[in-house]
Amino acid sequence: MALTSGPTSHFFYSSRLRQHYVDWGNEGAPTLVLVHGGRDHCRNWDWIAERFRNDYHVIAPDLRGHGDSDWSIGGAYAIADHIYDLQQLLRQKTAEPVSIISHSLGGAVSLLYTGLFPETVSRLVVIEGTVQLHFSIKPIADRMNGWIDSLRNNSGRLPRRYPSIEAAFQRMQEENPHLSADRARHLTIHGVNQNEDGTYSWKFDNYVRSIAPNPFTPTEVGELWTRITCPTMLIYGADSWVKPPEASGAGMHFRTATTRVIEQAGHWVHHDQEERFFEMVKPFLETGIALP
Questions:
Q1: By residue range, what is the domain housing residue 237?
Q2: CATH number at residue 124
Q3: Does residue 144 form part of some domain?
Q4: How many domains does the structure of the chain reveal?
Q5: How far is CA 253 from CA 111, 246, 248, 256, in A?
Q6: How does pLDDT run across 118-162, given as a tens digit for each residue?
Q7: How far, in Å, CA of 206 to CA of 171, rounded?
């Protein structure tokens, strides 16, 4: 689908960080919030936003440490930080309740946010965001040592520099071979900054790779999921590494969740099978009912 006029950039503050989001206009319409995954950026949603912009007021944030949002001083990227940021964005910039479409890390954040504040979300669509339930929680000494080692390693890790946009684009295609060339190039252009020496680096902070030592336990995750009251759709790619709830047991924690697995799609379902994704999600957002 060809893109027309793009969104406008805006900023808000959370935890003293200047955080970026894009707004596709149509204020006064119901709000639809699009939350990207780890090491991604808000322009990842451009094609989905284009499809929904006439019916919704679509906004899409850059998570802290991603895109054009500030990097967290000290490298704090706990999932609780992302939940707080999402709450600040919605309270400052939207009229609740909202609908949310989210992916991967953004899906994990959105699920926990909705469990904490169920009255603020009317529809929830999550693409491959349930993996958090199955993280193994190691002893605290192991978690702390691993986190310290990770921060130390990242402190000496320089952002990878690509000699050209074309080189970065080729890396994008390697990461997701399902992407068309045009889509991979668009994501690359919006996902890099040019360095002073003329090379290009991805916008995300390398410290987002460090896993905080104080994660939610699987019991806590499941407890928050049970608090979600709005219609919820969990979407998975048949070719992805993420297990759907039927295989993982995650589904038992949801009151009203419907699961859909899309064939010939990997982890980025909304890119790999955009038309099928849209046909599935549009009526669900309108009615709260998942069609076959």
A1: 8-137+208-287
A2: 3.40.50.1820
A3: no
A4: 1
A5: 11, 12, 11, 10
A6: 999 999 999 999 988 767 788 999 999 999 999 999 998 999 999
A7: 17
